[in-house]
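Lecture notes, unit on binding sites. The following record was shown on slide 14. It pairs a sequence with zinc ion.
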Amino acid sequence: MKYVLYFSFMLLAFTCFFTACQDDSCTPLSWYEDADGDGLGNPNVTQSACDQPDGYVDNNSDPNDTGAIGTPLSAFEEFNADAVSYSIDGGEVTIVSNGVPNHTSPYWMETEPLYIERVVGDHNTPGFIGERSYTVTVPLYPQLATTSSATGLGAIGIAVAGPPIFNDEEGPNRPLDVNTASGLDYAGAHNGPSGYHYHLEAADVPQNTTLSYDDEKLVGIMADGFLLYGRKELDGSYPTDLDESGGHIGITPHSEGEEIYHYHIINEFYIGTYVMLFGGDLQGTPNTIF
Ligand SMILES: [Zn+2]
Ligand SMILES: [Zn+2]
């Protein structure tokens, strides 16, 4: 086989010696290496050629061309389609939500079909569930940053049900306390000036039919583009190698056996039996949810 290749090469070289190998009139184009074969090229490995070289593509939207898969698109199909839509442009995905959940809550107006009386906690904060607008654009191949980013007040992620995920604070330097927690519904959410939002993992009550509780379900996507899952791994075990934000590299229910960086709800009580959805720093590069 080696000799055949060698002979072919010699023949090609011989042919080129007598005829023009390259068409002089061509305009070379830039080609980008696609080492992981996903159709997206690496902006840092380029070739200039008239014809597409093997293993190269004509776009440069895959800065993480290492064979790692990006955020599995099947994860986006889990979001409440009545509230959340997503669109992909190049190497980025834009997620838009109206913030309206598809589950019951005492935060619905009593005339709404999904209104139920409170099953956990003891008081409502003012206001009702209503339409809002949340938009975030994140890379389809999110990267771990060299330094992590503290989260701020307001939306730090979009949950699968539609409303935003908030962190462990209820005001500037004011951690969520027992009184605030008792105003949350079984979904771990309450209403605030900026709308209905989650702080805690949902409660283990019969009324909770969709939200993650001590399982491997998808919880949402964070502002740095990494997915947030429930406390458990796909195989039902608790992950043991999480970083301080609850993240690690491993397989998820959506990654089809490939390893990707993702967060978990950290399996520890915050106060009482409350479990925080996301109280750490973001390990990628967060974009603003506006
Ligand atoms: Zn809040
Ligand atoms: Zn995991």
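Take-home: The first helix runs from residue 2 to 18.
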